[in-house]
Amino acid sequence: MKRKHVVVDGSNIATEGRAAPSLAQLDDAVRALLAEYPYEHATVVVDATFGHRIDAKEHKGYEEAALNGELVTPPAGAIGRGDAFVLQIADRATADVFSNDSFQEFHGQYPWLFDEGRLIGGKPVPNVGWVFVLRAPVRGPTSRRSVRDARKTTTTTTTTTAAKKEPAKQKAAPLKTPKPVAKSVSKASLAPAPTAKTTEPRPRRRRSTAHGEPINDQMVYAAFVVDHPVGAVVDGVVDRFSSHGAYVHVGEAQCYVPLRELGDPPPRSAREVLNLGETRPFTVQRFDPVRRGIDVVPVGGRLAKSESGRNVAQAVAIATGTTNHAIDAEEAPVSPAAKKAAKRKAPAKRKAAAKKAPAKRKAAAKKKAPAKRKAAKRKAPAKRKAAKRKAPAKRKAAKRKAPAKRKAAKRKAPAKRKAAKCKAPAKRKAAKRKAPAKRKAAKKRAPAKKR
Q: pLDDT tens-digit profile of 78-121?
């Protein structure tokens, strides 16, 4: 061995083939290693918890070895614990390492572990003693990750160092003197250099206007509002589709068909109901005086609540510019005829509500009836069970009473029989006495009849 120093991973060697570390096994291994290899210095490193894990009989020997400097422990809270401390000592002292560990998490930091002879392993063999062998660290996922991280760190450090050196080089470089310009310049050199064609995409044409921008021209919008009030039917041509509906052209005016008005429930897209370029009748639904928008729905579609009074007035006012933009529909005068019509409709609504009430009650009663029947069915088994429980009790009571009645009847029967027997002889005697008298009378009468 060229190296004269060895660092021993004491915690690893003391635990080889054992569940708990042994100070005696560590001492035997170090003595056998020094006897086989000519090392002049040996540093034995153990974990900070080594003294708490060994047998209680070895505590005194451990304390003496630590005081004499024969055992070295890493500082408390050291990252990597004893392994990092072992490799750091070996790296500074250019020493060999005696351990059965591969130190995979440190392969990127200490590549000399793969040098021949730097890592020595050993095991105790029964009846032979300690046997030592040169080792090569085992590679694995942890090893590859450690090497990869080390490369990244090295690359970053190199780039940072190069960036710091470049400004110094630039300052040291001498300034180049400009070359004299020739007096005769050709026309070709004065021509502008051809510029490369830009590959930027052409801006997409905006199909929908931003919030607040007018959709229709002022005069077109005003003419449409005057000619086609809310509820009017117009023929529109489907121009294009949007994410929430479609746009329709009625003459020069551009109208919008909301998706929610194309069906109940609304379709996923207006393409399912409308065809591009087709002409269909639409009903004017509402106006948007601020943006000069016109909403229409297919004929037969739902109409929003009447906004004609306010919207038409605002549309005409904005188109002509004669009045303010805000006109409150609640302040508009209501005609007496409209009030009378509203009063006439109110009784009709009440009658309709009264007619619907009995129907609702019947429906509610029908719904409740099955519930009551179910409840009665549920109670019926309970009543039957209770009746069955009571029936045996009644039968038992009846059986108990029956013998008593029978006994009383038996007691009364002999008395009646005796009374009957007593009366029978008397009746018989009376009958016998009467019988001769009847017979005598009959004999006396009989001769008279013969004559």
A: 765 788 899 999 999 999 999 999 898 899 889 998 998 899 99
The answer for residues whose C-beta is within 8 angstroms of residue 121's C-beta and 6 or more apart is 98, 99, 100, 132, 133, 134, 135
Instruction: Write the CATH number of the domain with boundaries 218-331.
Output: 2.40.50.140
- Arch. (CATH architecture) of 5-144: 3-Layer(aba) Sandwich (3.40)
> What are the pLDDT digits (tens) for 305-356?
334 444 445 555 555 554 444 334 344 444 555 556 555 655 555 666 556 5
Q: State pLDDT tens for residues 241-281.
A: 988 899 999 988 999 999 888 888 888 888 888 898 899 89
Spans of all domains in the chain:
5-144, 218-331, 392-451
218-331 matches 5-144 in CATH topology: no
